[in-house]
Amino acid sequence: MSERHLQPLLHDLVGVVHAPTSALGDAAGQIRPHGVQGVFHADARVLSRAELRLDDREPEALTRGPAGPHGARFVALARWLGDPTPDPTVRVERTRQAGPHGVTEELVVSSTAADPVHTTVSVDLGCDLAPIELVKSGGSGAPLEAKAGEPGRVQWAAEGLTVTVTGEAATVDAAGDRATAPRLSWPVTLAPGESATLRWRLAVTDPKAVVTAAPPGPGWSEPAVRADDRRLVRLLDRALADLRALRLAEPAHPEDVFLGAGVPWFLTLFGRDSLWAARMMLPLGTDLAAGTLRVLARRQGTRVDPATGEAPGKILHELRRHEVALADGGLRLPPAYYGTVDATMLWVGLLHDAWRWGLPADQVEPLLPHLEAALGWLGEHADADGDGFIEYVDTTGHGLANQGWKDSGDAVRFRDGRLAAPPIVLAEVQGYAYQAAVNGADLLDAFGRPGADRWRGYADRLATRFRAAFWVDGPHGPQPALALDRDKRPVDSLTSNIGHLLGTGLLSDAESAQVAALLSTEALAGGFGLRTMSTDDAGFSPLSYHCGSIWAHDTAVVLGGLARDGHRAPALRLADGLLAAAEAFDYRLPELYGGDDRAALGRPVPYPAACHPQAWSAAAAVLLLQAALGLYPDVPAGRVDLRPLAGPELGALAADGLRIAGTPIKITVNHTGHPTLTGLPHSLHIPTPRPAPNPTHSPA
Fold first, then answer.
1. At 123, is the pLDDT very low, low, confident or very high (cuts 50, 70, 90)?
2. Transmembrane segments in this chain: where (predicted)?
3. DSSP run (H or E) holding 528
4. Are 552 and 620 in contact (CB under 8 A)?
């Protein structure tokens, strides 16, 4: 039997991050030379081992906790030292901090023993400079030989990278067998009641990195939030700390900040992820959105290139320092890869939404040529077979087989479990296209540019085609299909994708109500959030990446659409699922988790290879806050609508420091659900609340 290449598990590892640097170790604080443990910097593992010992013995782990937004602290015991009593008298604290160009560790050994304690503290190191895709495939690089130079210093260099570890007052052993496993060591003597503090640091020099640390400062407002449901406050606090750690920029344009997608696999620019995260963060200001838009606009496609997926006007999928080639020989992606069907429409959506939140005209106008190019891609390149729908197919044989947000190879399945054959027409992508056309038309009109009528006509025709082709009969009544396959047959599984249609304008009021009812079924909503596929479908598995698991961002996006369209009860149910999951994961929502029933264990099952922190999972907390407050501004139209979820079920809620048109505002929602907003610019008003939608006809 051939050996499987298994992606390493990381759900129980402890990470620290200050993008583009991250470090992953075990619960004891050790970084061991296997799996995905290590220190990573911009797609390379720059340290594969950092194991702490006292007298060549590992201390016994006791507990751990955060140490600021970029750090973790580990507490352990050395019970073989000190007094021979049941009470431990020698304690070891290890604090790890990530910085933009490396990590530091502080080791504190303290004693309450009656007699002096003598020990030798050591840290065994290793470096393989393995590329991230090799680690993700379950592989590792050969240990590199270290060079010892100045006292207390050891160094590795290859592929343009230089990694230097310096131990303050440490002795370095890098000779003979220790050339690939160098050791820092410190002799320590502690009198009763004394402690010793030892430090070492890792620094990376990486001139070829395609991403760099963002300038200091969060780049968004930090609101003061009060809530009856304290889970929301704790989730938001942790999420904003994680998002600060994920901020990145390009070396040539440090002023334009975006969010790296996630640790450890995706800590770089990802079109879809960075766009969704910036969109969710709009209640805290428009700076992040503007930076993300400009970064992606600079890399917007200009030519047709099947090898990279590039096309004129198309927005990038991901950016790496080199080609990404997985060990199984299948997936092979170029450094700048455009294999995404939705990022271009999401770019248009972010520009439009940022404008509505108050992005100044002098920042919108330079992006209008890129808007026109994006719409040009939608009209000229996104519909290869001319049937009026947006589809994708990988023509290279080594790119992503699926190019929506559910991009695993088995993500698009019929109800009976069969895989759909490409080209694939995804349901939610048609919603994104409709919204992009309408949003683009609004921007063109507002800034006196031609073409708006063309795109409104495009949207109308797309809605008609979608209504005729996508609605099918399902076990819970009429439903939009997940997709159309190569033969334009509806892929009839029931999935979370249909929730992304809410708020796009593609659905009628009656269709929106039916989708809300489908999203409320136990088959989709019976877990801690929204399952990616219903339990009624043959392809369902609670730990499938895209066919039954729960993704925090997916749940939040759908929750936001439900709230915006006035479907209060299903939105509140998803909100409760997210908050319960957040509590179980210590308020750091991972990339995804299991889709098991809530009653099965009383807590969500971890997905063992889920990234954490993850940008759009963390930003989901801000979208949840916005939906709870019901805050929907339209600065160009001079209005702010208020339709809060908070109130009798979710409790009272208040936020001070959200931003509309660059101005800090304060909003409170009392126990009855009545909102009060203060601090609005004089140019904005709050209209009388509109009545809830009243469906007048049934879905197709």
1. very high
2. none
3. none
4. yes
